[in-house]
Description:
Order of helices and strands: HEEEEHEEEEEEEE
Oligomer: single chain
Amino acid sequence: MHARRFLAAALVLAALAACTDGGQDxxxxxxxxxxxxxxxxxxxxxxxxxxxxxxxxxxxxxxxxPATSGPAALDCVNGWTTPPDGSEKARSxxxxxxxxxxxxxxxxxxxxxxxxxxxxxxxxxxxxxxVERWYVKLFAERDFSFDGRFLVEARRFGQGxxxxxxxxxxxxxxxxxxxxxxxxxxxxxxxxxxxxxxxxGVPYDFVGGGAGIEIPGLPDxxxxxxxxx
Length: 229
């Protein structure tokens, strides 16, 4: 399911590559305040996206700086870390978010986690044994209506935004996290209440799956990597 979903997302990324900003518009402010340049299944059942009122004011920052690492555990098999500002691991997911949503201008990264784990559902195929994932919480400094939380996934054949949730949500629960199944017959991009940017495809519940196939978006092995977000 997710391999097909991700392949569809990769097609969207290729079509939107021209949307990547350059120069000052491509800057990103990380959790520590440093500014660095960025780089670049089965059918699902549509669901209602979360209805959250977008604030016209600057999104709130956490009272305390977010943690920068978490230990390995049964539900976070390899632990998680916050990649250093300016590193490829820090720039990569931001570039994917830019291309997918079309957001322009500087971005304030509030929280960033990188972790690895198996595919969902588990697969014995070599290129799916380890999936790279990023959790990113950010907002646009020139447009406070663009704020949200993102899950970015990378496999051998490419990267894509797997799901998005409202900025003021927390943890990993339904119906906050929404995925989009790309539909080549309807490539129009649309806005959704509570979600930043514009999205092409059919929205669905990323946490629980759809179309009668209860395949979760994330495997149990990495659910704990989002604890405290």
